[in-house]
Amino acid sequence: MQNLWNDQDAQTYIDQALAKGQPADLGLRVYTSRIIGQVPDLVLHGGGNTSVKVTQDDGTRIIHVKGSGWDLETIEAPGLPAVYLEPLHEARHQGRLSDPEMVALLRKNLLEADAPNPSVEALLHAYLPDTFVDHTHSTAVLVLADQDNSEEIMREIYGDRLAFLPYVMPGYDLSIAGADLFDQFPDCQGLWLKNHGLFTFGATAKESYDRMIDFVTEAENYISAKGIALPGPEKSDGSLNDTLRENLQAALQSGASPFANRIALDFRTTPSIRAYLANPALEEISMRGTATPDHVIRIKPFPMIIDENSNEGTILAAIADYQQKYSAYFNRNAPNASEPKVQLDPWPRIVMIRNVGLVGLGKDAKAAAIAGDLGEQTARIINAAEKIGRFQPINEADLFDMEYWSLEQAKLQKK
Protein backbone atom coordinates (compact mmCIF):
# COMPACT_ATOMS: atom_id res chain seq x y z
CA MET A 1 0.00 0.00 0.00
CA GLN A 2 1.74 3.11 -1.26
CA ASN A 3 1.74 6.20 0.94
CA LEU A 4 0.61 9.05 -1.34
CA TRP A 5 1.16 11.92 1.09
CA ASN A 6 3.06 14.80 -0.50
CA ASP A 7 3.96 17.90 1.50
CA GLN A 8 3.67 20.22 -1.50
CA ASP A 9 0.22 18.87 -2.44
CA ALA A 10 -0.92 19.13 1.17
CA GLN A 11 0.15 22.78 1.29
CA THR A 12 -1.74 23.47 -1.95
CA TYR A 13 -4.95 22.20 -0.38
CA ILE A 14 -4.30 24.30 2.74
CA ASP A 15 -3.75 27.41 0.61
CA GLN A 16 -6.91 26.77 -1.40
CA ALA A 17 -8.97 26.37 1.77
CA LEU A 18 -7.58 29.53 3.35
CA ALA A 19 -8.27 31.47 0.16
CA LYS A 20 -11.93 30.45 0.44
CA GLY A 21 -12.10 31.44 4.11
CA GLN A 22 -12.05 27.80 5.24
CA PRO A 23 -9.92 26.28 8.01
CA ALA A 24 -6.57 24.82 6.99
CA ASP A 25 -7.57 21.50 8.52
CA LEU A 26 -10.59 21.32 6.23
CA GLY A 27 -8.26 21.68 3.27
CA LEU A 28 -6.14 18.83 4.62
CA ARG A 29 -9.28 16.79 5.20
CA VAL A 30 -10.23 17.15 1.54
CA TYR A 31 -6.66 16.25 0.54
CA THR A 32 -6.30 13.04 2.54
CA SER A 33 -9.87 12.00 1.72
CA ARG A 34 -8.97 12.19 -1.96
CA ILE A 35 -5.71 10.26 -1.70
CA ILE A 36 -7.62 7.56 0.18
CA GLY A 37 -10.48 7.60 -2.31
CA GLN A 38 -8.29 7.20 -5.38
CA VAL A 39 -7.04 3.78 -4.19
CA PRO A 40 -9.56 1.04 -5.05
CA ASP A 41 -7.99 -1.31 -2.52
CA LEU A 42 -8.99 1.14 0.23
CA VAL A 43 -12.49 2.20 -0.85
CA LEU A 44 -14.79 1.69 -3.83
CA HIS A 45 -17.76 3.72 -5.09
CA GLY A 46 -18.90 5.77 -2.12
CA GLY A 47 -17.40 3.44 0.48
CA GLY A 48 -15.54 4.68 3.54
CA ASN A 49 -15.86 8.00 5.31
CA THR A 50 -13.66 10.70 6.85
CA SER A 51 -13.98 13.61 9.25
CA VAL A 52 -12.17 16.51 10.93
CA LYS A 53 -13.03 18.46 14.08
CA VAL A 54 -12.54 22.23 14.01
CA THR A 55 -12.85 25.03 16.55
CA GLN A 56 -14.57 28.15 15.19
CA ASP A 57 -13.49 31.69 16.00
CA ASP A 58 -16.11 31.92 18.77
CA GLY A 59 -14.83 28.72 20.39
CA THR A 60 -17.67 26.51 19.11
CA ARG A 61 -16.56 22.98 18.20
CA ILE A 62 -17.83 21.49 14.94
CA ILE A 63 -17.15 18.35 12.94
CA HIS A 64 -16.90 18.17 9.16
CA VAL A 65 -17.86 14.62 8.15
CA LYS A 66 -18.35 12.99 4.76
CA GLY A 67 -21.83 13.59 3.40
CA SER A 68 -24.05 10.94 1.90
CA GLY A 69 -23.78 10.69 -1.86
CA TRP A 70 -20.17 11.87 -2.10
CA ASP A 71 -17.18 9.76 -3.17
CA LEU A 72 -13.91 10.28 -1.33
CA GLU A 73 -11.97 10.31 -4.60
CA THR A 74 -13.65 13.51 -5.82
CA ILE A 75 -14.87 15.04 -2.57
CA GLU A 76 -14.85 18.81 -2.03
CA ALA A 77 -15.54 20.91 1.04
CA PRO A 78 -19.35 20.92 0.50
CA GLY A 79 -19.18 17.12 0.65
CA LEU A 80 -18.00 17.39 4.26
CA PRO A 81 -20.99 19.06 5.94
CA ALA A 82 -20.36 20.78 9.26
CA VAL A 83 -22.27 19.69 12.39
CA TYR A 84 -22.23 21.18 15.88
CA LEU A 85 -20.42 18.75 18.18
CA GLU A 86 -21.81 19.58 21.61
CA PRO A 87 -25.42 18.45 20.91
CA LEU A 88 -24.11 15.17 19.51
CA HIS A 89 -22.17 14.50 22.70
CA GLU A 90 -25.17 15.46 24.82
CA ALA A 91 -27.29 12.89 22.96
CA ARG A 92 -24.87 10.02 23.58
CA HIS A 93 -26.19 9.10 27.03
CA GLN A 94 -29.84 10.12 26.59
CA GLY A 95 -31.15 6.77 25.40
CA ARG A 96 -31.03 4.84 22.17
CA LEU A 97 -31.98 6.64 18.97
CA SER A 98 -33.64 4.98 16.02
CA ASP A 99 -31.83 5.59 12.76
CA PRO A 100 -34.42 8.17 11.58
CA GLU A 101 -34.01 9.92 14.96
CA MET A 102 -30.23 9.87 14.49
CA VAL A 103 -30.58 11.42 11.04
CA ALA A 104 -32.92 14.06 12.49
CA LEU A 105 -30.38 14.84 15.24
CA LEU A 106 -27.61 15.29 12.69
CA ARG A 107 -29.73 17.40 10.35
CA LYS A 108 -30.97 19.59 13.20
CA ASN A 109 -27.37 20.44 14.08
CA LEU A 110 -26.04 21.11 10.60
CA LEU A 111 -24.53 24.54 10.19
CA GLU A 112 -26.10 24.75 6.71
CA ALA A 113 -29.64 23.48 6.39
CA ASP A 114 -29.25 22.48 2.75
CA ALA A 115 -26.11 20.39 3.32
CA PRO A 116 -26.18 16.66 2.51
CA ASN A 117 -26.96 14.14 5.23
CA PRO A 118 -23.82 13.36 7.23
CA SER A 119 -22.49 9.80 7.04
CA VAL A 120 -24.46 7.14 8.94
CA GLU A 121 -21.28 6.72 11.02
CA ALA A 122 -21.03 10.44 11.82
CA LEU A 123 -21.69 9.92 15.52
CA LEU A 124 -18.77 7.53 15.85
CA HIS A 125 -16.54 10.11 14.17
CA ALA A 126 -17.86 12.68 16.63
CA TYR A 127 -17.28 10.52 19.71
CA LEU A 128 -13.69 9.57 18.82
CA PRO A 129 -11.65 12.40 20.36
CA ASP A 130 -8.89 12.73 17.77
CA THR A 131 -9.06 15.60 15.29
CA PHE A 132 -8.92 13.43 12.16
CA VAL A 133 -10.72 10.10 11.65
CA ASP A 134 -10.49 7.84 8.57
CA HIS A 135 -12.57 4.75 7.72
CA THR A 136 -11.94 2.33 4.83
CA HIS A 137 -13.00 -1.07 3.50
CA SER A 138 -9.51 -2.22 2.54
CA THR A 139 -9.23 -5.37 0.42
CA ALA A 140 -6.45 -6.82 2.58
CA VAL A 141 -8.28 -6.01 5.81
CA LEU A 142 -11.47 -7.67 4.53
CA VAL A 143 -9.54 -10.86 3.69
CA LEU A 144 -8.71 -11.08 7.41
CA ALA A 145 -11.80 -9.43 8.90
CA ASP A 146 -14.02 -11.98 7.12
CA GLN A 147 -12.60 -14.87 9.16
CA ASP A 148 -14.16 -16.49 12.21
CA ASN A 149 -10.87 -15.97 14.10
CA SER A 150 -10.57 -12.38 12.93
CA GLU A 151 -9.78 -11.09 16.44
CA GLU A 152 -6.96 -13.59 16.90
CA ILE A 153 -5.45 -12.55 13.57
CA MET A 154 -5.77 -8.86 14.44
CA ARG A 155 -3.95 -9.31 17.75
CA GLU A 156 -1.20 -11.35 16.09
CA ILE A 157 -0.53 -8.53 13.63
CA TYR A 158 -1.17 -5.38 15.67
CA GLY A 159 -1.05 -6.30 19.34
CA ASP A 160 -2.87 -3.61 21.29
CA ARG A 161 -2.46 -0.87 18.67
CA LEU A 162 -5.96 -1.69 17.41
CA ALA A 163 -9.13 -2.44 19.37
CA PHE A 164 -11.43 -5.21 18.13
CA LEU A 165 -15.16 -4.71 17.56
CA PRO A 166 -17.41 -7.69 16.69
CA TYR A 167 -19.86 -6.99 13.89
CA VAL A 168 -22.43 -4.32 14.73
CA MET A 169 -24.98 -2.90 12.31
CA PRO A 170 -23.74 0.43 10.88
CA GLY A 171 -25.56 3.52 12.09
CA TYR A 172 -26.42 4.44 15.66
CA ASP A 173 -25.58 1.05 17.20
CA LEU A 174 -22.13 0.95 15.61
CA SER A 175 -21.42 4.53 16.67
CA ILE A 176 -22.18 3.79 20.31
CA ALA A 177 -20.38 0.43 20.32
CA GLY A 178 -17.30 1.95 18.68
CA ALA A 179 -17.25 4.89 21.07
CA ASP A 180 -17.62 2.60 24.09
CA LEU A 181 -14.79 0.40 22.76
CA PHE A 182 -12.49 3.39 22.41
CA ASP A 183 -13.31 4.46 25.98
CA GLN A 184 -12.11 1.02 27.12
CA PHE A 185 -8.89 1.28 25.09
CA PRO A 186 -8.08 5.00 24.83
CA ASP A 187 -4.48 4.35 23.77
CA CYS A 188 -5.42 2.44 20.62
CA GLN A 189 -4.66 3.96 17.23
CA GLY A 190 -7.60 2.45 15.37
CA LEU A 191 -10.63 0.16 15.46
CA TRP A 192 -10.79 -3.20 13.66
CA LEU A 193 -14.42 -3.86 12.69
CA LYS A 194 -15.10 -7.54 12.07
CA ASN A 195 -16.66 -8.19 8.65
CA HIS A 196 -16.60 -4.46 7.93
CA GLY A 197 -13.32 -2.55 7.79
CA LEU A 198 -10.87 -0.32 9.65
CA PHE A 199 -10.94 3.04 11.46
CA THR A 200 -7.81 5.06 12.19
CA PHE A 201 -7.45 8.43 13.87
CA GLY A 202 -4.82 10.97 14.78
CA ALA A 203 -4.10 14.51 15.93
CA THR A 204 -3.13 15.51 12.38
CA ALA A 205 -4.29 14.57 8.91
CA LYS A 206 -0.93 12.94 8.18
CA GLU A 207 -0.93 10.91 11.40
CA SER A 208 -4.36 9.39 10.77
CA TYR A 209 -3.59 8.79 7.08
CA ASP A 210 -0.16 7.26 7.80
CA ARG A 211 -1.72 4.91 10.32
CA MET A 212 -4.29 3.77 7.77
CA ILE A 213 -1.64 3.07 5.14
CA ASP A 214 0.68 1.38 7.65
CA PHE A 215 -2.02 -0.85 9.12
CA VAL A 216 -3.29 -1.92 5.70
CA THR A 217 0.29 -2.61 4.61
CA GLU A 218 0.78 -4.81 7.67
CA ALA A 219 -2.35 -6.77 6.71
CA GLU A 220 -0.96 -7.19 3.19
CA ASN A 221 2.38 -8.33 4.59
CA TYR A 222 0.69 -10.86 6.88
CA ILE A 223 -1.09 -12.41 3.89
CA SER A 224 2.06 -12.37 1.76
CA ALA A 225 4.16 -13.96 4.52
CA LYS A 226 1.88 -16.99 4.35
CA GLY A 227 2.69 -17.39 0.68
CA ILE A 228 -0.78 -16.22 -0.37
CA ALA A 229 -1.10 -13.93 -3.37
CA LEU A 230 -3.37 -10.90 -3.09
CA PRO A 231 -3.01 -9.04 -6.39
CA GLY A 232 -4.21 -5.49 -6.79
CA PRO A 233 -7.13 -4.58 -9.07
CA GLU A 234 -6.77 -6.45 -12.35
CA LYS A 235 -7.84 -5.27 -15.79
CA SER A 236 -10.05 -7.52 -17.86
CA ASP A 237 -8.03 -9.48 -20.42
CA GLY A 238 -10.83 -10.88 -22.57
CA SER A 239 -14.22 -10.20 -24.08
CA LEU A 240 -17.66 -11.78 -23.94
CA ASN A 241 -18.69 -13.50 -27.15
CA ASP A 242 -21.51 -11.80 -29.01
CA THR A 243 -23.92 -14.73 -28.88
CA LEU A 244 -23.75 -15.10 -25.12
CA ARG A 245 -24.03 -11.33 -24.67
CA GLU A 246 -27.15 -11.24 -26.83
CA ASN A 247 -28.69 -14.21 -24.99
CA LEU A 248 -27.97 -12.60 -21.63
CA GLN A 249 -29.41 -9.25 -22.66
CA ALA A 250 -32.57 -10.80 -24.09
CA ALA A 251 -33.20 -12.93 -21.01
CA LEU A 252 -32.43 -10.15 -18.54
CA GLN A 253 -34.83 -7.76 -20.25
CA SER A 254 -37.73 -10.19 -20.26
CA GLY A 255 -40.86 -10.11 -18.13
CA ALA A 256 -41.00 -7.69 -15.21
CA SER A 257 -37.28 -7.02 -15.33
CA PRO A 258 -35.95 -3.79 -13.80
CA PHE A 259 -33.81 -3.67 -16.95
CA ALA A 260 -36.73 -3.99 -19.37
CA ASN A 261 -36.24 -0.49 -20.79
CA ARG A 262 -32.48 -0.27 -20.58
CA ILE A 263 -29.61 -2.54 -19.56
CA ALA A 264 -25.83 -2.25 -19.49
CA LEU A 265 -23.49 -5.24 -19.21
CA ASP A 266 -19.97 -4.84 -17.84
CA PHE A 267 -17.93 -7.98 -18.57
CA ARG A 268 -14.77 -8.82 -16.61
CA THR A 269 -12.34 -11.69 -16.90
CA THR A 270 -9.05 -11.69 -14.99
CA PRO A 271 -6.75 -14.32 -13.50
CA SER A 272 -8.37 -13.82 -10.09
CA ILE A 273 -11.91 -14.01 -11.44
CA ARG A 274 -11.14 -17.19 -13.37
CA ALA A 275 -9.49 -18.73 -10.31
CA TYR A 276 -12.59 -17.93 -8.25
CA LEU A 277 -14.92 -19.39 -10.89
CA ALA A 278 -12.81 -22.56 -10.97
CA ASN A 279 -13.33 -23.16 -7.24
CA PRO A 280 -15.28 -26.44 -6.94
CA ALA A 281 -17.23 -24.91 -4.03
CA LEU A 282 -18.23 -21.82 -6.05
CA GLU A 283 -21.99 -22.24 -5.62
CA GLU A 284 -21.72 -22.57 -1.84
CA ILE A 285 -19.11 -19.84 -1.33
CA SER A 286 -20.97 -17.33 -3.50
CA MET A 287 -24.08 -17.73 -1.33
CA ARG A 288 -22.30 -16.73 1.91
CA GLY A 289 -22.72 -13.00 1.36
CA THR A 290 -20.82 -9.84 0.43
CA ALA A 291 -17.28 -8.97 1.49
CA THR A 292 -18.40 -5.88 3.42
CA PRO A 293 -22.01 -5.11 4.37
CA ASP A 294 -22.76 -2.08 2.22
CA HIS A 295 -21.92 -3.94 -1.00
CA VAL A 296 -25.27 -5.69 -0.71
CA ILE A 297 -27.16 -2.59 -1.80
CA ARG A 298 -25.19 -2.62 -5.06
CA ILE A 299 -24.87 -6.31 -5.94
CA LYS A 300 -27.55 -8.17 -3.95
CA PRO A 301 -26.62 -10.87 -1.39
CA PHE A 302 -25.47 -13.40 -4.00
CA PRO A 303 -24.79 -13.65 -7.77
CA MET A 304 -26.40 -15.71 -10.51
CA ILE A 305 -24.25 -18.48 -12.02
CA ILE A 306 -24.57 -19.82 -15.58
CA ASP A 307 -22.49 -22.02 -17.89
CA GLU A 308 -20.49 -20.69 -20.82
CA ASN A 309 -22.68 -22.48 -23.36
CA SER A 310 -25.97 -21.11 -21.98
CA ASN A 311 -28.65 -20.13 -24.47
CA GLU A 312 -31.55 -17.78 -23.84
CA GLY A 313 -33.71 -20.61 -22.50
CA THR A 314 -31.17 -21.85 -19.96
CA ILE A 315 -30.49 -18.27 -18.86
CA LEU A 316 -34.22 -17.72 -18.32
CA ALA A 317 -34.26 -20.89 -16.20
CA ALA A 318 -31.29 -19.59 -14.19
CA ILE A 319 -33.12 -16.29 -13.64
CA ALA A 320 -36.21 -18.15 -12.40
CA ASP A 321 -34.01 -20.18 -10.02
CA TYR A 322 -32.32 -16.99 -8.81
CA GLN A 323 -35.68 -15.36 -8.16
CA GLN A 324 -36.83 -18.36 -6.15
CA LYS A 325 -33.68 -18.22 -4.02
CA TYR A 326 -34.01 -14.47 -3.52
CA SER A 327 -37.69 -14.69 -2.54
CA ALA A 328 -36.86 -17.50 -0.10
CA TYR A 329 -34.11 -15.32 1.39
CA PHE A 330 -36.62 -12.47 1.78
CA ASN A 331 -39.31 -14.71 3.30
CA ARG A 332 -36.87 -16.19 5.81
CA ASN A 333 -35.76 -12.81 7.09
CA ALA A 334 -38.58 -10.29 6.60
CA PRO A 335 -40.73 -11.67 9.48
CA ASN A 336 -37.88 -10.89 11.89
CA ALA A 337 -37.44 -7.29 10.77
CA SER A 338 -38.28 -4.45 13.15
CA GLU A 339 -40.64 -2.92 10.60
CA PRO A 340 -42.63 -4.23 7.61
CA LYS A 341 -40.54 -4.76 4.48
CA VAL A 342 -41.54 -4.86 0.85
CA GLN A 343 -39.46 -7.19 -1.31
CA LEU A 344 -37.10 -5.51 -3.72
CA ASP A 345 -36.77 -6.78 -7.27
CA PRO A 346 -35.47 -10.37 -7.30
CA TRP A 347 -33.08 -9.90 -10.22
CA PRO A 348 -29.29 -10.38 -10.07
CA ARG A 349 -26.73 -7.61 -10.34
CA ILE A 350 -23.79 -9.94 -11.03
CA VAL A 351 -23.80 -12.94 -13.39
CA MET A 352 -20.93 -15.40 -13.09
CA ILE A 353 -20.14 -17.44 -16.20
CA ARG A 354 -18.24 -20.62 -15.39
CA ASN A 355 -14.77 -20.78 -16.96
CA VAL A 356 -15.28 -17.37 -18.55
CA GLY A 357 -15.79 -14.36 -16.26
CA LEU A 358 -18.42 -12.21 -14.61
CA VAL A 359 -20.86 -9.56 -15.80
CA GLY A 360 -21.94 -6.55 -13.78
CA LEU A 361 -25.51 -5.47 -14.52
CA GLY A 362 -27.04 -2.03 -14.33
CA LYS A 363 -29.55 0.33 -15.89
CA ASP A 364 -26.61 2.33 -17.23
CA ALA A 365 -22.90 1.86 -17.82
CA LYS A 366 -21.93 3.44 -14.50
CA ALA A 367 -24.14 1.14 -12.42
CA ALA A 368 -22.90 -1.89 -14.35
CA ALA A 369 -19.27 -0.85 -13.86
CA ILE A 370 -19.82 -0.44 -10.12
CA ALA A 371 -21.19 -3.98 -9.93
CA GLY A 372 -18.27 -5.21 -12.02
CA ASP A 373 -15.72 -3.48 -9.79
CA LEU A 374 -17.26 -4.95 -6.65
CA GLY A 375 -17.41 -8.39 -8.23
CA GLU A 376 -13.75 -8.21 -9.26
CA GLN A 377 -12.67 -7.13 -5.77
CA THR A 378 -14.82 -9.84 -4.18
CA ALA A 379 -13.10 -12.52 -6.26
CA ARG A 380 -9.67 -11.38 -5.06
CA ILE A 381 -10.85 -11.22 -1.45
CA ILE A 382 -12.43 -14.68 -1.48
CA ASN A 383 -9.47 -16.34 -3.21
CA ALA A 384 -7.12 -15.12 -0.47
CA ALA A 385 -9.59 -15.55 2.39
CA GLU A 386 -10.17 -19.21 1.51
CA LYS A 387 -6.41 -19.83 1.68
CA ILE A 388 -6.06 -18.01 5.01
CA GLY A 389 -8.92 -20.07 6.44
CA ARG A 390 -12.56 -19.68 5.46
CA PHE A 391 -14.30 -16.68 3.92
CA GLN A 392 -17.03 -15.92 6.45
CA PRO A 393 -18.82 -12.57 6.07
CA ILE A 394 -21.80 -11.46 8.17
CA ASN A 395 -24.66 -13.90 8.52
CA GLU A 396 -27.74 -13.83 6.33
CA ALA A 397 -29.98 -12.08 8.85
CA ASP A 398 -27.49 -9.22 9.27
CA LEU A 399 -27.03 -9.00 5.51
CA PHE A 400 -30.79 -8.74 5.05
CA ASP A 401 -30.98 -5.97 7.64
CA MET A 402 -28.35 -4.08 5.66
CA GLU A 403 -29.99 -4.58 2.28
CA TYR A 404 -33.39 -3.51 3.60
CA TRP A 405 -32.09 -0.77 5.92
CA SER A 406 -34.10 2.37 5.23
CA LEU A 407 -31.03 4.64 5.39
CA GLU A 408 -29.07 2.58 2.88
CA GLN A 409 -32.06 2.35 0.57
CA ALA A 410 -32.40 6.14 0.71
CA LYS A 411 -28.70 6.49 -0.19
CA LEU A 412 -29.13 4.18 -3.18
CA GLN A 413 -32.24 6.01 -4.41
CA LYS A 414 -30.42 9.34 -4.15
CA LYS A 415 -27.56 8.03 -6.27
From TrEMBL:
Matches recorded under InterPro entries: Aldolase_II/adducin_N (IPR001303), Aldolase_II/adducin_N_sf (IPR036409)
SUPFAM superfamilies: AraD/HMP-PK domain-like
Gene3D superfamilies named in the record: Class II aldolase/adducin N-terminal domain
Organism of provenance: Thalassospira marina
Highest taxon of source: Bacteria
Signal peptide: none
Lineage, highest ranks first: Bacteria, Pseudomonadati, Pseudomonadota, Alphaproteobacteria, Rhodospirillales
Pfam families from the UniProt entry: Aldolase_II
The protein, known as: Short-chain dehydrogenase
Domain Class II aldolase/adducin N-terminal: 28-223
